[in-house]
Amino acid sequence: MGGTQNGKTVANGRVKNGKTIELSTPVEECPKPAFYVFWLVQLNITMMLLGAMVATLLDNWGIVKTKRAKGDPRMKDFSPLGNSFDATYTDHIYRQSTDVVNRPISGVPGAIVRLKDRYTDDHGWTQNRLVFRYTGKETEVINLGSYNYLGFSHRSGVCADAAAAYIDKYGINCGGSRQENGNHIVHKSVDRTLADYLRVEDAVVFPMGFATNSMNIPALVDKGSLILSDRLNHASLVTGCRLSGAHTMVFRHNDAKDCERKLRDALCGVSPKTGEKYNKVLIIIEGIYSMEGTIVDLPSFIAVKKKYNCYLFLDEAHSIGAVGPSGRGVAEYWGCNPKDIDIMMGTLTKSFASAGGYMGGAKKTIDYIRRYSAGTCYGVTMSPPLIAQVERAVLIMSGQDGTDIGRQKAISLLDNSRYFRKELRKRGFLVYGNNDSPVVPLMTFYITKVVEFSRRMLKHNIGVVAVGYPATPLLEARVRFCLSADHTKEHLDYILEALVQVGEETNTFYGTKIDE
């Protein structure tokens, strides 16, 4: 079952109640607001920064005293650890918005979560003690911030029971790395489970998602190699590229044609680091981009990979479990052969409600990683109960548990994503990303607006993620929603009602109302 959307053939439609539900691609995944919006946002941030710089100067001259951290006189002859811009931004802009970030939770991060109530009596300036004070009370909110895409984050049920059983059987620590005595039977089991789920020859797990990228990319390429990296790739991928020593070129977001142009130009020359022809080329992309909600144009990148005999690295941190009829990620979503992807990376933290990451691919590639990766050599191994959580969740999503719970979770998540995005656009909000992506960024553009937006949503008992610089460009602040299969239509309708009210209060309707 397939279809064509916007000139692209889309495979693996779904059948629900006898009706085919096609996968969809919006006309424009990152639409632009009216031309004057960026001018006004730039004026806003310029005035904020000028005010911050003046305040810093007045503080340095002793005219105005603030609680800003002062440099230790003993360190005056040392090079600064940071830069003046970041320090000024943190002291005078970020500091005043710290109440909307790092909110502590005190329960399971399901569709409903409990937040610990807190306050600051000096606008977040406090040093040498806790910035926020706790009231001793808690508030239940609808959770739109956690990566609980499939709704496996529960304190009871088959996954929790399996994790508890593994604690009784194996304990919580294996006491070593995969190359030493930490290579436990449960690790071999989860490697095989994930390889079968991904439909690749082999896989290997790591205890941390960030390190899965940053510690393994240096094992795959070196200073004689070329990396082509999407402009919006995650920090863990950027760190891995830098640690590898390879020459890295950045291409426009999700643009296979620009990737090909840069690749072709690079292959006409030599490596600037070795003066010789590149020994290999690695293209690095993500399945779903966590701040844009865009789904990668995987077929186009596979075509480039095959045409130029490159290697393709796919990071599925946000897409594994979240897209595809059985949650197998963007390869299943597009109907591509997983064997056309040389490295399939993903995290176990989000859809599977555990911790860690994995690398999947051909057996010879995974064996090479097991032997030469810093992660397997120096890193400790995953805890057994975390592995039990992953294995049980994968069995459910693949249908091997004998139920259709996994299929229903995938359908519920897809329905929620499409419904929520459609309703946001109908109300005039500007939303980034693909219709089928559970990551939904609502653009506020102004840093001041995104902070106030989050505060006012909390008054409606709705927890959202407010995102600004440096996680996004200075002029593109946004509220990011992460949808879950556990969210009900009643949840979403209540959220939409609150969003309209807060949108009117903050004047954040930057889109064009669309009646779909």
From TrEMBL:
Keywords: Acyltransferase, Membrane, Pyridoxal phosphate, Transferase, Transmembrane, Transmembrane helix. Its cofactor is pyridoxal 5'-phosphate. Residues 140-499 form the Aminotransferase class I/classII large domain. The chain crosses the membrane at residues 36-58. One of its GO terms (molecular function) is serine C-palmitoyltransferase activity. It holds the Pfam family Aminotran_1_2. One of its GO terms (biological process) is sphingosine biosynthetic process. GO terms for cellular component: membrane; serine palmitoyltransferase complex. Belongs to the class-II pyridoxal-phosphate-dependent aminotransferase family. This is Aminotransferase class I/classII large domain-containing protein.
